[in-house]
Amino acid sequence: MYKILIVEDDEIIATLLKDNLCKWGYEGKVIDDFTKVMEEFLEFDPQLVILDITLPFYNGYHWCSEIRKVSKVPIIFASSTSDNMNLIMAINMGADDFISKPFDLNVMIAKIQALLRRTYSFQGQVDILENNGVILNLGEAILTYKDKKLELSKNEFKIMQILLENKNKVVSREDIMTHLWKSDSFIDDNTLTVNVTRLRKKLEDIELKDFIKTKKGIGYIIGG
């Protein structure tokens, strides 16, 4: 089931959209707190976002820009401010489509279906793992923190992935080695230490000192 996030402050429109998405087999979520759009985006992890331009606190362009820092998820702008300048700006900000209000719900559903088909028919879902503002994009092997991006090597990415998937839990060295090399046999234990040390140095460069903690004799942990 595809999940769709609705960032719309008109409760009537938002409810209509959510109800119709449900009828078509989608899971819709309406933003509750317009100061925490990114927090709800990361928690819900949608496959598509419907975004109004005029919103409380920050406008849709702001949130589109913030989402684009961490994800390539399809974004449809739905707005009554539908002049050419807003349409062009929306596309330039990273939106995939634009629909003017008032819109026909059938047209909106058709646009959503087409966009989902184009985006996910040839690729899997772009997942995101997050902990305390640290965001790992699984589709691009990029880690983001405070507007800073970090490109990771294959091993660094796999270490971050297994630790974030098990945040607040200690992950044993054996489990990490198996995740990296599909076996904990015939691998020098020091090789893992070297990889973790290199990753920690990269994390420190973007102000993430001690993000990965060592549990002596056991393994590593993020959080907790």
Could you explain how this protein is built, in words?
With 224 residues, the chain is α/β, with parallel strands linked by helices. The protein has two domains: 118 residues, Rossmann fold (3-Layer(aba) Sandwich); 95 residues, Arc Repressor Mutant, subunit A (Orthogonal Bundle). It is 42% helix and 21% strand. It is elongated and about 65 Å long. It contains eight helices and twelve strands. The strands form three sheets. It has a five-stranded parallel beta sheet, with helices on both faces.
Please, how many helices? 8
Q: Tell me, what is the CATH class of the largest domain?
A: Alpha Beta
Strand-residue fraction?
15-25%
What is the correct CATH architecture of the largest domain? Answer: 3-Layer(aba) Sandwich
- What fold name stands as the CATH topology of the largest domain? Rossmann fold
Helix content: 40-55%
- H and E string: EHEHEHEHEHEEEEHEHHEE
- Termini separation comes to 32 Å
Total of domains: 2
**What's the alpha carbon Rg, rounded to whole Å?**
20 Å
What would you say about this model in short?
The chain has 224 residues and is an alpha/beta fold. Helices cover 42% and strands 21% of the residues.
Secondary-structure map:
Layout: E1 3-7, H1 11-23, E2 27-30, H2 37-44, E3 48-51, H3 60-68, E4 75-79, H4 84-92, E5 97-100, H5 105-120, E6 128-131, E7 134-137, E8 142-145, E9 148-151, H6 154-165, E10 171-172, H7 173-181, H8 189-205, E11 212-215, E12 219-222
Parallel strand pairs: 1-2, 1-3, 3-4, 4-5
Antiparallel strand pairs: 6-7, 7-8, 8-9, 10-12, 11-12
